[in-house]
Amino acid sequence: MAEAQTIPVGSTTAGQIAVAAESTVATRMSAPPSFDVADFPVPHGREEEWRFTPLERLRGLHDGTAVATGEGLKVEIQAPEGVTVETVGRDDARLGKAGTPADRIAAQAYSAFEKAGVVTVPKETVLTEPIRIAVHGEGGTAYAHQVIELGAFAEAVVVIDHTGDAVLAANVDYLLGDGAKLTVVSVQDWDDKAVHVAQHNALVGRDASFKSVVVTFGGDLVRLHPRVSYAGTGGEAELLGLYFTDKGQHQEHRLLVDHNTPHCKSNVVYKGALQGDDAHAVWIGDVLIEAKAEGTDTYEMNRNLVLTDGARVDSVPNLEIETGEIVGAGHASATGRFDDEQLFYLMARGIPADEARRLVVRGFFAELVQQIGVDDIEQRLLVKIDEELEASV
Amino acid sequence: MATLEIRDLHVTVEVENGTKEILKGVDLTVKQGETHAIMGPNGSGKSTLAYSLAGHPKYTITGGTVTLDGEDVLEMSVDERARAGLFLAMQYPVEVPGVSVSNFLRTSATAIRGEAPKLRTWVKEVKEAMERLNIDPSFAERNVNEGFSGGEKKRHEILQLELLKPKVAVLDETDSGLDVDALRVVSEGVNRVRETGEVGTLLITHYTRILRYIKPDHVHVFSGGRIVESGGAELADKLEEEGYEAYTKGGVSA
Ligand SMILES: Nc1ncnc2c1ncn2[C@@H]1O[C@H](COP(=O)(O)OP(=O)(O)OP(=O)(O)O)[C@@H](O)[C@H]1O
Ligand SMILES: [Mg+2]
């Protein structure tokens, strides 16, 4: 435990810091990562990785009964000049390189997709316009695989927008060459009935920086699993997330940062607001510092703001440290309430009720939104947050 | 001239085993420029009066009237009351996570003044007001009342009083929890506002200490949910010497 005491750590609600000889992040899962769905038992709900998820609302993605419809999901890619956009078969060597499916649905998606998308930004190409990927559901069920690859020293912003209604299981791979810089914004702005389960795998090259922004507003059930590992020293990963969980919605974000390489950094900040009966947000933040990853610097934080009764948050930061030779490691998790006393206080200063609520929620998200660094996305988010609030009144 | 008139005010709260009447007929008139001190023992209903005037939803008005310049205050929502010119400095100011002091002050001033204050003059106005109250500039970026000490919370309330310039200010135990230096700073803030002659002040307190800094025109003794005696500043001296015993033991009028 001696190492643990030198580690600056923030406040903790449900989390733990384990100084372990061996990782339990892996052993907590019901099976080791695999590309083959047959390697995973069908979950029954009590497994560590499924215990927060309402399986009956997965529409069969977890037990093999969800059959792809062939249509009902459209993907449109707009890419600036210099970017290659391809549709490839299952045997393409670039698929599955960034990471391996970690649970049954990710493996199901990998086992079932027919064609994959590959977007390539050649080395040293610096894009000034974002690559935009519009995923629009028209009631279909689909398994998908998308690869986004940046060559050495390439720089790009990718915006992936999910709208409409679909049942979708997907894996998205991000491959960053040495010194590359990639920002990916994934917006889940689904209609009310959509079910979306996806694993995001980022493999961060030497001295490369990866920024993931996950924004979840819509859907009946959204379960995302962003994972990061490093292919060389000096890599940086910033994982930002924002969710607004409404009445009846289940929004689950499970993260893993695997510090498998020395001298890499990670910073995770997820913030969520919840309102309405049975709004359920789950946040699992696993950070693993492997024995060989000396010089690691990592911090993860999750904050939740509960706006009404009847909403529920499960927040579990989990930091595992196998070496004491690190720069810093910390985590924090907190869930606060916007309550009647706060509302009274603001109103007693002349601020109308709806504006008071907006002030609190905007304030809560503001700092995070400013860190996104993609102007039109920031603006859109602020508008969207206001819309969500108006829908609630 | 702005006048707050409270007539025969009766207020109840819901408690575990039913409804409890706390205010039992309060009569009081506060005019612009006047300072009234309300003094009374713990649990006599002072804060209940303050909250009821501000419109806190926990308190039910069961009888009586409150008017500000003839307008029915009890008909107004909490925010309307504030915009009409009523201000309550709370005994226990509330923490509001996620909202910075500067954002809060500006939003509030915009609501009360009916238009956003000009940014240039506003920044200066806030900075100077904070300086006068010995509030460190870094507080502007902190979340409202979050992690503030008791004294810091009270100074923050008076900062709002200075910026919002109400017609009638109700100060609920603004003196409690302050050391002598802080008490002086806060009192000076209240006096600056009083000296404009444009505010009526209702100073609720348990102790006479603050009355050395803020001289009241009228002193009222509050006990058992109503005003049981009124007088000038000399009444405070009597309370200082004799305490509230005469009033709580059913002496004067209970
Ligand atoms: N929200 C409430 N729920 C239940 N009881 C309440 C509530 N507010 C006040 N009371 C009760 O009403 C009585 C008066 O309380 P109040 O806070 O108005 O007194 P006070 O004069 O301000 O006391 P203090 O000097 O301690 O601040 C007390 O018995 C108190 O317990
Ligand atoms: Mg009180």
Characteristics of this structure?
heterodimer; A: 393 residues; 2 domains; 17-stranded mixed β-sheet; 5 helices; 15% helix; globular; disordered N terminus; B: alpha/beta; Rossmann fold; 6-stranded mixed β-sheet; 4-stranded antiparallel β-sheet; 34% helix; binds adenosine-5'-triphosphate; binds magnesium ion; ABC_transporter-like_ATP-bd (chain B); AAA+_ATPase (chain B); nucleotide-binding (chain B)
Question: What does this 3D model show about the protein?
Answer:
The complex is a heterodimer of chains A (about 400) and B (about 250). Chain A is mainly β and about 400 residues long. Chain A has 2 domains: about 5-340, no CATH class; about 340-393, no CATH class. Chain A has helices at about 1-5, 105-110, 340-345, 355-370, 375-390, and strands at about 15-20, 75-80, 85-90, 115-120, 130-150, 155-175, 180-190, 195-205, 210-215, 220-230, 235-245, 250-260, 265-275, 280-290, 295-305, 310-320, 330-335. Chain A has a 17-stranded mixed beta sheet that branches. The longest helix of chain A has 18 residues, at about 355-370. The N and C termini of chain A lie far apart (about 50 Å). Chain B is of the alpha/beta class and about 250 residues long. Chain B has a single domain, classed as 3-Layer(aba) Sandwich (Rossmann fold). In chain B, about 35% of the residues lie in helices and about 30% in strands. Chain B is built from 8 helices and 12 strands. Chain B has helices at about 45-55, 80-85, 100-115, 120-130, 150-165, 180-195, 235-240, 245-250, and strands at about 5-15, 20-30, 35-40, 60-70, 70, 85-90, 95-100, 145, 170, 200-205, 220-225, 225-230. In chain B, helix 5 runs parallel beside helix 6 (about 180-195). Chain B is globular and about 55 Å long. Chain B starts with a strand and ends in a 6-residue tail after the last helix. The mean pLDDT of chain B is about 95. The interface between A and B is medium-sized, with 21 and 30 residues. The site of magnesium ion (MG) has 5 residues of chain B, from helix 1. Chain B: This is ABC transporter ATP-binding protein. Chain B: Pfam families: ABC_tran. Chain B: GO terms for molecular function: ATP binding. Chain B: Belongs to the ABC transporter superfamily. Ycf16 family. Chain B: InterPro entries: AAA+_ATPase (IPR003593), ABC_transporter-like_ATP-bd (IPR003439), FeS-cluster_ATPase_SufC (IPR010230), P-loop_NTPase (IPR027417). Chain A: This is Fe-S cluster assembly protein SufD.
